[in-house]
Write a structure and sequence with these properties.
Radius of gyration: 20 Å
Order of helices and strands: EHEHEHEHEHHEHEHEHHHHHHH
Strand content: 5-15%
Number of strands: 8
Largest sheet: 8 strands, parallel, barrel
Distance between the termini: 36 Å
Low-confidence stretches: none
Strand order of the largest sheet: 1-2-3-4-5-6-7-8
Structural class: alpha/beta
Number of domains: 2
Shape: globular
CATH superfamily of the largest domain: Glycosidases
Number of helices: 15
CATH class of the largest domain: Alpha Beta
Mean pLDDT: 96
C-alpha cells in the first residue's frame, strides 16, 4: 500500500536538537517517510509569539535543516499556529502574518501547516473565520501544499471540555467552504487514537469533503500524563486497509528521537505487509535495525517496565537496575532511556498551558 508517510514534530516539552532531526530524516527516508513537518510546541515563534520575527540564528538553523531534508529527498514543512488570530484578523495582524510568511517561505518550504489546535474555539462562526485566514495564507505562501489543523481535530470530547463546546456543524462548514486543495488534519476518534478504521475515516472524509491527513499521536509521550512511559511497541490498529481512506499519515513521535524510530519503522512495515503484518515480528525487526541485536534484546526484555509500569510503577531499586543495564551500551538510544529514568523527559503541566 503506497501511503505517504511523514513525521510531524508536534509535541510539548523539550524539542529535538537539529542533529536529532537530521538523523531521523536520514534514518526513516529509506523506509518511505517522505515529509517532515517542524512544529514543536516549544517554538514560541510559531505559536504565542508568532508575530515576532525569528532571530537570525534560529532562522539559519531552520534553513540548514530545510536543506538537509531536501538533499535527502524529504519534503520540508513548518507548522504555524497563529495564536487566536481568528479573534482579530485585522490590518496589523495581516501585516504581521505576511512578514512571518515571508520568513518561512525564504526557507524553501514544501509544506506549510496552518494549525488552529490548542486554542479556544467556541465561536459560532469559527469555521468561516478560519477559512478566511487559510485562504489568505494559501494565496501568498510559496509552499506547494497547505495543511490545516482544525481547532476540533478529533471526535474526542476532551477538546470541548478544554477549549469550549465545538460549534454545531464545525467540521462540515470547514470542509464545505475550504478550497479542496487544502489538506485537513485529523487525529481520529480520540486525541490519542487507539485505532483507525475505514468506516470512521470514510465518515470523516464525508464531513471534510476530502480524505483526512492523519496526525497520529503515537508514539508521542509528552505532558505529565504520558511522559512517564516510553512508547516503543509496534503500531497496531492502523491496518493497511485504511490507506485508500487517507491523504497521508503523519507520526507525532516521542520525545526520544532515536527510540521513536522503532515504532515508526513498524508503521511502514504494516502498510507494506498488509494482512501479513505481525506486530511483534515488526517490533523485533525494527528494534534490531535501530539498536543492534544486543540492545534490542535488552529493550524487549524491559518492555513491561518501560512501556507499561513506567516511572511511577517502579521503585528506586528497579530503576537503578534498569539504569545499570542500559549504561552498559554505548548507544544514543540507551542514553535516552537513562535520561528518561533520571526524569529528564518528565512533562510539566505548565508546558501544556504556555506553549
Amino acid at each position: 500500500m503506497d501511503v505517504e508517510l511523514g513525521i510531524i514534530e508536534g509535541f510539548f516539552g523539550r524539542p529535538y536538537g537539529w542533529d536529532e532531526r537530521a538523523d531521523m530524516v536520514a534514518a526513516l527516508r529509506p523506509a518511505g517517510y517522505r515529509f517532515y513537518l517542524y512544529g514543536p510546541k516549544a517554538d514560541g515563534y510559531l505559536r504565542r509569539r508568532w508575530r515576532e520575527p525569528y532571530p537570525e540564528p534560529e532562522l539559519e538553523a531552520l534553513a540548514a535543516f530545510s536543506l538537509a531534508c531536501r538533499t535527502t529527498g524529504v519534503r520540508f514543512g513548518v507548522g504555524l499556529s497563529p495564536y487566536e488570530l481568528f479573534l482579530a484578523f485585522d490590518a496589523p495582524a495581516k501585516a504581521a502574518l505576511a512578514a512571518k510568511l515571508a520568513q518561512l517561505d525564504a526557507l524553501g518550504l514544501d509544506d506549510l501547516g496552518v494549525f488552529f489546535d490548542d486554542m479556544k474555539g467556541d465561536l459560532p462562526d469559527l469555521a468561516a473565520r478560519q477559512v478566511e485566514i487559510i485562504h489568505w495564507i494559501a494565496g501568498r505562501t510559496t509552499a506547494s501544499r497547505v495543511i490545516a489543523c482544525p481547532s476540533y481535530y478529533s471526535d474526542d470530547p476532551v477538546l470541548d471540555r478544554v477549549f469550549g463546546q465545538r460549534p454545531a456543524g464545525y467540521l462540515e462548514d470547514l470542509g464545505r467552504a475550504l478550497d479542496p486543495a487544502v489538506q485537513l488534519m485529523w487525529t481520529g476518534e480520540e486525541v490519542c487514537a487507539r485505532e483507525f478504521s475505514p468506516g470512521h475515516l470514510a465518515r470523516v472524509a464525508d464531513q471534510m469533503r476530502r480524505k483526512p491527513f492523519l496526525w497520529d499521536n503515537y508514539p508521542v509521550n509528552d505532558g505529565p500524563r504520558i511522559s512517564p512511559y516510553l512508547h516503543l511497541r509496534a503500531f497496531t490498529g492502523r491496518p493497511a486497509t485504511i490507506g485508500p481512506h487517507i491523504a497521508a499519515h503523519a507520526v507525532n513521535p516521542a520525545s526520544q528521537a532515536v527510540l521513536s524510530r522503532i515504532p515508526a519503522l513498524t508503521l511502514a512495515e504494516s502498510y507494506a505487509q498488509g494482512p501479513a503484518y505481525q506486530y511483534l515480528a515488526a517490533f523485533r525487526g525494527a528494534a534490531r535495525a535501530v539498536l543492534g541485536a544486543d540492545l534490542a534484546e535488552a529493550v524487549e526484555r524491559s518492555l513491561l517496565l518501560l512501556e507499561d509500569a513506567g516511572l511511577e510503577g517502579m521503585d528506586a531499586a528497579r530503576k537503578a537496575r534498569l539504569r545499570d543495564r542500559f549504561a552498559a551500551f554505548d548507544h544514543p538510544a540507551a542514553r535516552e532511556i537513562i535520561a528518561w529514568l533520571d526524569g529528564a523527559f518528565t512533562g510539566r503541566a505548565d508546558d501544556m498551558q504556555t506553549q
